[in-house]
Write a structure and sequence with these properties.
seven-stranded mixed beta sheet; 10 strands; alpha/beta; three-stranded mixed beta sheet
């Protein structure tokens, strides 16, 4: 397909995948998206938000290589536009493209707080940390208008329920009045993803995520408020941002990060062709080398879906990254401690009837 690169967007393609026997298409032919170009560039795509009314909001998993068993995703799709996002293929379930549609045709779940309250109030519910940001970012730009993530956090703070947040946005600091006290009580931890501190790389790799400096500042603000704050180097892309590993860790440690994580890039399903097209657009000089290295990490394929190895990678390149990461963490005093949150403070939400004294 010819490139459909747009200013401020990550994907350069918008084809509907054929995994689900859906009719192929390339563009939505919205007349507002076909306005005349500016300075020879394609017009900027508008972002649309559709209300989604799910029946439940807690998503559970029993994956052996994931450190949580339940999560909440207030939004579907993500305007940050990170080209490597492993959640992109989920848009195909809705006859939408994992490419530009994933970044521009978003879904919001305004019933999420009420659904969450209902879930927590069910008889026999056992509290374990609820993870936010496991699929799409809970603090992407539309959170500023919808406030669904904040409303969910209000329910969790009210009930003393533990939660974790993973985000690429400094917008989490806007909710420090909730996250801060929860962190001090041992009920909250936040992971800020900073895969690059080079603004030039960030502009194409994750075009609508906040500037890396803002994310580092958010780590500092969280740490100062007593919230266990961690930095995530996810993903590390060979020949694109792997040279920054030690610098990112040093910058995060300097502002108060408690620990760090990293993940070699994953390219499941439709992410692989989108990433290849992105390489051809932005790094044609090294595209073949980047993909060859990724395949060496992923057992000769674009992606390794197997438990455990999908998170670690394999081969000399993966081992080199792990060694560099381990040495850097040791020098900086990162101990590799796991996030441990309290569950004993949870009290189910009050129902319609008053509780007996």
């Amino acid at each position: 397909m010819p490139s459909q690169a747009r200013p401020g967007r990550g994907a350069t393609l918008n084809a509907t995948p054929q995994r689900f026997n859906l009719k192929a298409r390339e563009e939505d032919d919205d007349w507002l998206d076909d306005r005349e170009t500016v300075d020879g560039e394609a017009p900027r795509l508008r972002t649309t938000v559709t209300v989604e009314r799910p029946k439940t909001i807690l998503t559970t998993n029993n994956s052996p290589d994931i450190g949580f068993d339940r999560s909440v995703n207030p939004y579907r799709g993500c305007e940050h536009g990170c080209i490597y996002c492993f959640a992109r293929p989920t848009h195909a379930f809705h006859d939408l493209s994992p490419g530009l549609d994933f970044e521009t045709r978003l879904f919001a779940k305004p019933d999420a707080p009420a659904l969450l309250r209902s879930e927590l109030g069910k008889r026999g519910y056992v509290a374990r940390p609820i993870a936010f940001g496991t699929n799409t970012d809970p603090y992407q730009p539309i959170e500023g208008d919808w406030g669904i993530t904040r409303a969910c956090l209000e329910v969790l703070v009210e009930t003393g329920h533990p939660f974790t947040i993973t985000t690429k946005s400094d917008r989490v600091v806007r909710d420090l009045d909730l996250v801060g006290p929860a962190g001090v009580r041992g009920l909250a931890a936040v992971v800020i993803s900073v895969p690059t501190i080079d603004p030039a790389i960030a502009r194409t790799l994750e075009p609508r995520a906040p500037h890396p400096a803002k994310r580092l500042a958010a780590i500092g603000a969280l740490a100062a408020a007593g919230v266990p704050a961690y930095v995530s180097l996810a993903p590390v892309v060979p020949q694109i941002n792997d040279h920054e590993m030690e610098h990112i860790l040093e910058a995060a440690q300097a502002v108060g990060a408690r620990g760090a994580f990293f993940l070699p890039v994953r390219l499941p399903h439709e992410v692989a062709p989108l990433f290849r097209a992105w390489l051809d657009e932005h790094h044609p000089d090294r595209a073949a080398k980047v993909m060859a290295t990724i395949q060496s990490i992923r057992g000769g394929r674009d992606n390794d879906p197997n438990f455990h190895t999908r998170m670690r990678g394999q081969g000399p390149w993966a081992e080199l990254l792990r060694t560099r990461f381990r040495i850097a963490c040791r020098k900086l005093g990162f101990t590799g401690e796991r996030m441990a949150l309290r569950t004993d403070l949870f009290r189910p939400p009050a129902g319609d009837q008053l509780s007996l004294l």
